Amino acid sequence: MWMVQNIDLAEVEKKAFRMSSHEDGLLDMFLGFVFLSIAVSEYLGIDISFFWFYIPLLLIWIGAKKYLTYPRVGYARFSPMRKSGSTAIMALLLASTLILVIFTVGVVGVYAINALIPLKETFAQYGLPLIGVYVGIIFAGIAYAWGTNRFYGYGVLASMVCLLAYFSSLDLWVLVILASSGIILSGIVVMMSFIRKYSVVEEGTYGKA
């Protein structure tokens, strides 16, 4: 009986972690809005303030997790190993997103200034495929870490956008806007499915995992 109870608690913990990690669609929308903001700012030639856009976006994500996701997870208290693992993955995700934003801003800067000519010429020749590979790796890492196949699809989509823009005359930022909008829409669909599938539960429903 003791072993069966432990197995059940482990399954509850695993389910709660999976639900809180990606089944709510919030991560899809967060990343979609990050890429969309970069694309829109470059396409329209406007500056988007990091402080006034990305920080509020992150706060909205955290608030949605607290008030939309966790009440449906059941407030399971994860074991130290699971908790530290989820924290590490979240830190890696946030760091990767921040690096991507900084990297993209740097890329635009390289195109904007005419210093470091060899670097500019090299990036102008191979930059888009490299970005496609990098973004694809980010999405694939998320898919592998959290076991959700749709992020593999996002990675393939990101790589295809960069390659299509590289080998054709299509505007990169228009393609990114379309792809980002698709990711946001996918996140909304996933979130609505999550809300319909899981109802709000009282604190302590799943107990300690």
Notes on the protein architecture:
With about 210 residues, this protein is an all-alpha fold. It has one domain (about 1-195). Helix content is about 80%, strand content about 0%. It has seven helices and no strands. It has helices spanning about 1-20, 25-45, 50-75, 80-110, 115-145, 150-165, 170-195. α2 (about 25-45) runs parallel beside α4 and α4 (about 80-110) runs antiparallel to α5 (about 115-145). It is globular, with a radius of gyration of 20 Å. The protein starts with a helix and ends in a 12-residue tail after the last helix.
Key features?
209 residues, disordered C terminus, mainly alpha, 7 helices, disordered N terminus
What's the quaternary structure here? single chain
Q: If you compute it from the alpha carbons, what radius of gyration comes out, rounded to the nearest whole angstrom?
A: 20 Å
Please state the structural category: mainly alpha
How many strands appear in the DSSP assignment? 0
Strand content: under 5%
**Amino- and carboxy-terminal Cα gap:** 16 Å
| Whole-number mean pLDDT | 73
Integer count of domains = 1
Summarize the helix and strand pattern as letters. HHHHHHH
Q: Characterize the largest beta sheet: strand count, sense, and whether it forms a barrel.
A: none
Basic shape: globular
- What fraction, in percent, of the residue positions are helical? over 70%
The number of helical segments is: 7
